[in-house]
Amino acid sequence: MTQLAGMTEIYLHRDVVDFRKSINGLMIIVESEMKLSPFSGGLFIFCNRSRDKIKALYWDETGFCLWYKRLEKDKFKWPRKFNQSLIHLSEQQWQWLLSGLDVMKMQTHQPLLYEAIR
User: Fold this and answer.
1) Of 1, 55, 69, 117, whose CA is between 20 and 30 Å from 20?
2) pLDDT confidence of residue 107
3) Strand spans (E) along the chain
4) Structural domain total, the chain
């Protein structure tokens, strides 16, 4: 997981994916459905229909890497009832997703920007 730490561009493909797809098939989804470049250095996350497996695809400047996780007894809280098919995640939301939390319901405190005290 250290290779995935520090990634700032994390994209979740909301629709389920046929997990027989490997790197080339997922690259096509990134380009055609997500309208992004798979060579951008972003992390692209996909889930299977039963929501117990995740694949993450990324380019590391020498080639593509495919990361895979299978849950043995649980399911990922995949955002199915979301209007967009592409969801941009923060690194914290990615960790929440891997930990079993619903990233669409989890919210951090909103930052406050003040210019002066009156």
Assistant:
1) 1
2) 64
3) 10-13, 43-47, 53-59, 64-70, 86-89
4) 1
